[in-house]
Amino acid sequence: QGFPPFSPPPRSRPLVVSGASFEQRVVELVNQARQEQGLPPLRQAGELDAAAAYHSRDMAVDDYFDHDSYNRVNGQLVFDRHWYERIGSYYSGWTSLGENIAAGYTTPESVMAGWMGSDAHRRNILSTAFREIGVGYYAGGSWGHYWTQDFGARRGVYPLIINGEAYSTTSRVVQLYIYGEDWATQMRFSDDGTTWTDWEPFTAQKTWTLPVGDGEKQVWVQISDGSTTYTNYDSIVLEEAVPVLSVTPSSLTFLTEVGMTTTLPLTHQVQVENVGGATLDWQAWVNTPWLHATPLSGTQGDRITLWVTTSGGLTAISGVYSASLTITSTTLGVENSPQTISVTLKVADQLERVYLPVTLRNYTPPTP
Fold first, then answer.
1. Number of domains, the chain
2. Is residue 41 domain-shared with residue 121, that is, in the same domain?
3. What would the pLDDT profile of 248-301 be if each residue is shown by its tens digit?
4. pLDDT in tens, 63-85
5. Structural domain contains residue 358
6. Residue of 88, 65, 79 whose CA lies nearest to 151
7. Do 42 and 99 belong to one domain?
């Protein structure tokens, strides 16, 4: 197969169609193992992903199993290059490299168990010499499944890692790990690499809140010792359950008659709920002076009480009057917001009254 003639794009993670890939899952398992040992996480680097992906495919297609790269020529294996030369061709400026390979394992969990059960492979996974990782998986070949882990660190590259390099999160609040503890004195952050927070003292760990709205989110960091500044970023997919505003009922009616100062009923109640996820704040208002409501704002669920003031000649003549109560969320990204409740006041010349007879019955308890 030879040496690949292209340079890998500088992606922070492999491109997948939906959800996390096998490669991504291996990265997550590596960082879980490192966390259990009190070690910092590794960031997934696109350059190392490409080097590992090439090697896994090359081993399967040319039918060999070795760290070094070979070509099959006329049925014979011909040495191509050493493993560190292959990785270095993708991953320039490296200061340390490592590699694990495996074949035959069918899942990320099983191959990780195999590597962690081997002292040499375990040392690579838990090494403090590395800051970045790439993973390649290929299905095919005589062993059916080929796996490569490539590890590295580069001069001037101080990664930022979100949530242990997890593929996705359901919470906007995430945990960051920032390399650079050995020299940086200050740091600042951004959601887009353009608008930055103020500089603050460097710490390796920080809590950060992602912007509202599902999809891929980025967190950027700049770290500095006062004279030299390095920039890096990481990304994660936010799959937060979206708040959904629900208001019931959708319409209300008050009844009264000419000259009356009260209504039937005296009050109505409207139920405001969040039937989705996360949290929503809401506010409400009415569009006419004779309709009143309380409370006019809240968080999550609550009941709004409505009543009518019939003063000012409102009930002097019969008629039908319309008003509305509008509830809207003040939280961004809420579905079904705003919602409007139609309110009707019917003023009749005379309300029909129905009187029911009262029946009294004598009751004698049984004799014990």
1. 3
2. yes
3. 999 999 999 998 888 999 999 999 998 877 788 899 999 999 999 999 999 888
4. 999 999 999 999 999 999 999 99
5. no
6. 88
7. yes
Question: Which two three-digit tokens encode residue 113?
Answer: 């168990």
CB 153 within 8 A of CB 129: yes
Q: Give percent above pLDDT 90 in the chain.
A: 75
pTM of the model: 0.65
| Helix (H/G/I), strand (E/B), else coil: 27 | helix
Q: Are residues 34 and 150 in the same domain?
A: yes
Q: How far apart are CA 87 and CA 119, in angstroms?
A: 23
Q: Could you please report the per-residue DSSP string of 34-102?
A: HHHTTPPPPEE-HHHHHHHHHHHHHHHHHT---SSEEEEETTEEEEEE-HHHHHHHHSTTEEEEEEEEE
The answer to which of 47-61, 96-110, 344-358 has the lowest mean pLDDT is: 344-358
Euclidean distance between CA atoms 102 and 150, whole angstroms:
12
Residue 254's pLDDT is 94
Structure tokens at 249: 């009922």
Cα(27)–Cα(132) distance, integer angstroms:
10
Give the domain CATH number at 221: 2.60.40.10
Predicted local distance difference test score (pLDDT) of residue 362: 59
Is the CB of residue 242 less than 8 Å from the CB of residue 334? yes
Containing domain of residue 188, as a range?
160-238
Tell me the one-letter amino acid at 18: S
Residue 350: which of 298, 324, 315 has the closest Cα?
315
What's the mean pLDDT when you consider all of the chain? 89
Q: Are residues 147 and 26 in the same domain?
A: yes
The CATH number of whichever domain residue 122 belongs to comes to: 3.40.33.10
